[in-house]
Specification:
- A hairpin with a 4-residue loop joins strand 7 and strand 8.
- The protein is 0% helix and 50% strand.
- It is mainly β.
- It is built from no helices and ten strands.
Length: 115
């Protein structure tokens, strides 16, 4: 079972990034999936969730209207399109199952937003 996040980087406030999460070793298409993030000195927080089929999504209030979660079950990959980025979005971003989370988290991908 493996989750590999990618696509992070350094961007100016107002910019955009697209994160990817490649999953393997489990039946990706049968799980709701989520993006999480952890900023320095803070606990990991739930950012966005997508249903098994992708027809239902939920977002933290802090990212609603700016971030879009999507998935491609054929490719076993999930995405997070992040627009209008703010310095407070700076964090390491992780993906995992929404429920029955995989104990071994991926390495995450660093997103740094400069003001």
């Amino acid at each position: 079972v493996q989750l590999v996040e990618s696509g992070g980087g350094l961007v100016q406030a107002g910019g955009s990034l697209r994160l990817s999460c490649a999953a393997s070793g489990f039946a990706f298409s049968t799980y709701a999936m989520s993006w999480y993030r952890q900023a320095p000195g803070k606990e990991r927080e739930l950012v966005a969730t997508i249903s098994v089929t992708g027809d239902s999504t939920n977002y933290a209030d802090s990212v609603k209207g700016r971030f879009t979660i999507a998935r491609d079950n054929a490719k076993k990959t999930m995405y997070l399109q992040m627009n209008s980025l703010k310095p407070e979005d700076t964090a390491v971003y992780y993906c995992n199952r929404r429920y029955n989370t995989i104990r071994s988290w991926g390495q995450g991908t660093q997103v740094t937003v400069s003001s």
